[in-house]
Specification:
Blueprint (H helix, E strand, L loop, with lengths): L1 H7 L34 H19 L5 E16 L2 E16 L5 H16 L10 E4 L9 H4 L1
Parallel strand pairs: 2-3
Antiparallel strand pairs: 1-2
Length: 149
């Protein structure tokens, strides 16, 4: 990309030569494998991704056509340590914020997110009476994408 190139190319335009050559676009990745899910990824990540995928499915098939593409999810899981292994006990908190059409009430959004997304995605054995739900916590979220940030 020209913007990155101007920062890392030498004066003669040759990339990667000389002391002034920079590293270009950089990123840091981290992660780990775990046996708490078949995907070998943390349960919190898998559940969060599945919530987003379910919302996308409902939006695309029209069952929840009010859902728009911009969404954020977070799942907090309580663990117990058993013989040196972290074992998921329960879902402590579920957060869902999704962009929506302007013609649906906040209460109806919360009702549908619970029934059509959370209750379908998160295993019932992980939900209890103390599970906390933050559904559409900011209220209105009609403008999404970069314009909404």
């Amino acid at each position: 990309a020209p913007d990155i190139g101007q920062a890392v190319d030498n004066n003669d335009g040759k990339e990667g030569e000389g002391e002034s050559a920079g590293a270009g676009d950089q990123g840091i990745m981290f992660g780990y494998a775990t046996d708490e899910t078949p995907e070998l990824m943390p349960l919190t990540l898998i559940l969060s991704h599945k919530l987003n995928m379910k919302m996308s499915e409902l939006r695309r098939n029209g069952e929840a056509g009010w859902i728009r593409p911009d969404s954020k999810t977070q799942v907090t899981v309580e663990y117990d340590m058993v013989n040196g292994a972290c074992v998921p006990l329960r879902v402590h908190t579920v957060v869902i914020s999704t962009q929506h059409s302007p013609d649906i009430t906040l209460e109806e959004q919360k009702k549908q997110l619970k029934a059509k997304v959370i209750d379908v995605v998160i295993p019932k054995k992980l939900i209890d009476n103390d599970t906390v739900y933050h559904l559409q916590p900011s209220g209105m979220f009609v403008i999404g994408g970069p314009q909404g940030d």
